[in-house]
Amino acid sequence: MSSFWDALGGAFGLVVALDPDLMEIIGLSMQVTLTAVLFACLIGLPLGAAVGTFHFPGRSLVAVILNALMGLPPVVVGLLVYLLLSASGPLAPLRLLYTPAAMVIAQVILVTPIVAALTRQVIEDLNREYSEQFASMGVGRLDRMTAMLWDARYSLLTVALAGFGRAVAEVGAVIIVGGNINHVTRVMTTTIALETSKGNLQLALALGVILLLIAFAVNSCVMALRASAVRAAYA
Predict the structure, then answer these.
(1) In whole angstroms, what is the distance from residue 151 CA to residue 155 CA?
(2) Model confidence over 128-152: pLDDT tens digits?
(3) Distances in Å between the alpha carbon of 111 and those of 1, 71, 215?
(4) pTM (2 d.p.)
(5) Average pLDDT along the chain
(6) Tens-place pLDDT, residues 188-228
(7) Best label site of 108, 147, 176, 213, fewest CB within 10 Å?
(8) Are the C-beta atoms of residues 184 and 98 closer than 8 Å to each other?
(9) What distance in Å separates the CA atoms of residue 133 and residue 162, rounded to the nearest whole number?
(10) More reliable by pLDDT, 179 or 22
């Protein structure tokens, strides 16, 4: 029991002292995660909005596929990206394997279906609610989609935060394509797995505390955004 408390005390000491190795790992984690979420939103928001707004053959199938891809196994995504970027893969000339860029690619593949599927549901509900008003005003579908994206901005920020929460906690895919190389591709989740296996519980616990704080901050932001959306709706 004393070793547990010693490890916990050492972990908080690393956090308070802003240990350089700890800060480097956290910084790379945030860089990879935020970049992946940005690209996932650039792809997923318009894709989900288009599926939620336009009617076309196979629309229901696309919606089903997006929902199914929300549950993509991370290790499978990591394996596919690894095969694409490996020396025998079609993208080998890019030399991205075992780099932060490869980790971003894997996270984008994992997060984009989540953003797209949740966006589709939000926009589809709004489209159903405002369809008569749009029709009476003769609003085109593209303008309709743009208007709904703006009207749903608070909900879509929540969608983006959900994607961030998924990305920041990812370990399976990023460890396959990143290799968990010290000072190169070592992020919080992969470091926790490695340091725990080595018995270095201080660093693992310190990073675990940071991840918990990030999860708390993300959930607080989601609740604040929902409250803002409710206030805006009744303003």
Answers:
(1) 9
(2) 888 778 777 877 778 888 888 888 8
(3) 39, 10, 16
(4) 0.87
(5) 85
(6) 888 888 888 887 777 788 888 888 888 888 778 777 877 77
(7) 213
(8) yes
(9) 31
(10) 179
pLDDT at 222: 74
All structural domains of the chain: 2-234 (1.10.3720.10)
- Other beta carbons within 10 Å of 145: 20
Token digits of residue 209: 């505390």
At residue 31 the predicted structure's pLDDT band, cuts being 50, 70 and 90, is very high
Three-state SS for the chain is: CHHHHHHHHHHHHHHHCCCHHHHHHHHHHHHHHHHHHHHHHHHHHHHHHHHHHCCCCCHHHHHHHHHHHCCCCHHHHHHHHHHHHCCCCCCHHHCCCCCHHHHHHHHHHHHHHHHHHHHHHHHHHHHHHHHHHHHHHCCCHHHHHHHHHHHCHHHHHHHHHHHHHHHHCCCHHHHHHHCCCCCCCCCHHHHHHHHHHHCCHHHHHHHHHHHHHHHHHHHHHHHHHHHHHHHHHHC
- Does the structure show a pLDDT above 90 at 104? yes
